[in-house]
Amino acid sequence: MLEPSLFPDVARFCYVKTGTEGFDLVNFQNLHPLEQSLVSHSVEVRKAEFGDARWCAHEALRELGYIGADPILRGERGMPLWPEGFTGSLTHTTGFRAAVVAPTKKVLSLGLDAEKAEPLPEGVLSMIARSGEIPQINRLREAGIPYADRLLFCAKEATYKAWFPMTHRWLGFDQAEIDIREDGTLISYLLVRPTPVPFICGRWMVQDGYVLVATTVEEGIGHERLAY
Fold first, then answer.
1. Which residues contact 38 (CB under 8 A, 6 or more apart)?
2. Residue 23 burial (CB < 10 Å; 0-12/13-18/19+)?
3. pTM
4. Which of 197, 175, 171, 214 is nearest to 11 (CA)?
5. Domain end: 55, 85, 107, which one?
6. Tens-digit pLDDT profile for the chain (228 aa)?
7. Which CATH number characterizes residue 32's domain?
8. Which of 50, 134, 137, 157 has the fewest CB atoms lying closer than 10 Å?
C-alpha cells in the first residue's frame, strides 16, 4: 500500500494491514521487554497497534542492514529513539500500521502519518487550519477530494513528526502553513523562529481508503543545526 515514491531513495519502509475489528498481539509479544514496558498499562488494542508499528520499524531497519537488537524506546513527547545513525517515523490508525527509516548520513528527519480517507468531524478543520489554507481545501474538494481537510490534518502531523526530532520543540497547527498540491506533493512553510529549515517538503497519496503523507528533511540541504 505504501509506495517508494513517497520517500527518499535511501529510505526503507514496512507496513501492516489489519482487520478493523479485533486485534493480534503476536508482534507486541515478540518485542524486547523494554519496548513492551512502554505500553504495559495500556489496553490490548493499544498494545497491538504499538507492537505492529514497532515490528515494522525493526523490519525497515533490517532492510537498511542494521543487525542490532536494540529496543526502539521513546524520548520526549513520544518521539521514537532510533539506533545511532538512523532516523525514522511511525504511524498507526485503524487497520493500518507503518514505519519508515533512513540513514542520517543522507536524511536528517522523516515524518509519516496515515488516516482513513474520510472528512474530519464537524468543527475540527477550524481548529487546525490557518486562514490561508481554507481556499486550498475548497479547491481540493472541488477537484474531487472530499477528504481534503483530513489530508491537511495528516500533512500537519507528518510535518510535526519531522520537526520535533530536529528541535525538541512543540509545533502548533497554526505554526506551519501547508501548500498541498494536486500532483501529490506539498510544502510546509514553518512560521516559527529559530528554525533549522524554512520549510519541509513532502508527498501524499491515497491508497486502499487511507490518506498517507510523508515528509523529509534531507541532510545538508538548506539547514543549520541548532543547539537547545
1. 50, 73, 74
2. middle
3. 0.94
4. 214
5. 107
6. 899 999 999 999 999 999 766 689 999 999 999 999 999 999 999 999 999 999 999 999 999 999 988 999 999 999 999 999 999 999 999 999 999 999 999 999 999 999 999 999 999 999 999 999 999 999 999 999 999 999 999 999 999 999 999 999 999 999 999 999 999 999 999 999 999 999 999 999 999 999 999 999 998 755 544 432
7. 3.90.470.20
8. 134
| Residues 82, 158 within the same domain | no
Does 57 fall in a domain? Answer: yes
Domain final residue, candidates 62, 85, 107: 107
Beta strands in 62-146 (DSSP E): 73-74, 80-81, 86-93, 96-103, 107-116
Owning domain of residue 78? 4-107
Alpha-helical regions (H) of the chain: 26-29, 33-37, 44-63, 125-128, 134-142, 148-167
Report the number of distinct structural domains present in the chain: 2
Three cell numbers written together for 158: 507528518
List own/partner pairs for 131-136 with CB under 8 A and 24 or more apart: 132/177, 133/177, 133/178, 136/179, 136/180
CA-wise closest residue to 162 among 218, 106, 207, 204: 218
Closest of 218, 216, 222 to residue 201, by C-alpha:
216
Domain match, 84 and 120 both: no
